[in-house]
Design goal:
CATH topology of one domain: Rossmann fold
Strand content: 15-25%
Helix content: 25-40%
Radius of gyration: 18 Å
Order of helices and strands: EHEHEEHEEHEHHEHEEHE
CATH class of one domain: Alpha Beta
Structural class: alpha/beta
Number of strands: 11
Distance between the termini: 20 Å
Strand order of the largest sheet: 2-1-4-6-7
Largest sheet: 5 strands, parallel
Number of helices: 8
Length: 253
């Protein structure tokens, strides 16, 4: 089973490509999060977790979801991380999580896809994003072939900087930057409510025809990236940057 968590679409797109090659089904972690903890998920094939890279590890919300979920059937787990540049030493922490859950860890590999962290980094124009997506497809197919063949994913060399990023830097990054107080909304808002429906943590409500954030944010960028009128901004950093959103279907509760 191919389980994905996605904010603006990179991981969903990769998950569906892997599922097509492996002839397996996809499962939305986004929707599962909205239903609350304590669920059971069964798969006769390997569990493949396709998620974005957050602060050089798998997202904390996904880590907690894996801890809170009961997995039956296969005990094999793969991890495919989408990223704007690199994923540090994320494999170490995914491996530890697998040991905690009784999974056999079959590797973690990353796929460079268009940068979507508009709150902090420059995002690509549409033509550049299309080029990056096209270049990612062969790599995703290669990883899918490993998974389909029951082979471990290739392990890239880990440098000291990777260990630092995924080690002491990760919790510091979350404490300093991952918060929703910087989100604002302009008069371009049309009260469509898409941001509230797309938020995987149910952190947004519509009040007086405007979105309001309630402090439980993972910085997935679904709200700002998918706003049809580009009415949402993050501090002063997002202004003028292209918005990136390629979700193939909406995430409803």
């Amino acid at each position: 089973m191919i389980c994905y968590f996605s904010g603006t679409g990179n991981s969903q797109r990769a998950a569906k490509q892997i599922a097509r090659i492996c002839q397996d089904q996809v499962f939305s972690i986004n929707n599962s999060l909205k239903k609350g903890p304590g669920q059971t998920l069964h798969s006769d094939s390997s569990f493949v977790f396709v998620v974005p890279t957050y602060a050089w590890r798998i997202p904390r919300v996904v880590e907690q979801w894996i801890r809170d979920t009961t997995f039956t059937g296969s005990k094999s787990a793969y991890f495919v991380l989408t990223c704007g540049s690199d994923f540090g030493n994320a494999a170490r922490y995914a491996n530890s999580l697998c040991q905690e859950k009784g999974f056999s860890f079959w590797g973690l590999s990353g796929v460079v896809m268009p940068e979507n962290y508009v709150a902090m980094f420059p995002t690509p124009e549409q033509t550049e994003a299309a080029r990056i997506l096209a270049e990612a497809e062969p790599h995703i197919s290669q990883l899918a072939d490993y998974i389909k063949g029951g082979l471990p994913l290739p392990a890239p060399p880990i440098k000291l900087l990777d260990k630092l990023k995924s080690g002491p830097v990760t919790p510091l990054f979350y404490s300093l930057f991952v918060r929703d107080k910087g989100f604002t909304v302009t008069e371009d808002c049309v009260d469509c409510g898409l941001c509230a429906r797309r938020c995987p943590l149910g952190n947004i409500t519509m009040e007086n025809k405007k979105p309001v954030w309630h402090g439980n944010c993972t910085h997935c960028m679904a709200c700002i990236g998918g706003c049809p009128t580009e009415a949402i901004e993050y501090k002063g950093t997002s202004k003028g940057r292209p918005r990136y959103y390629i979700m193939e279907d909406e995430e409803h509760g």
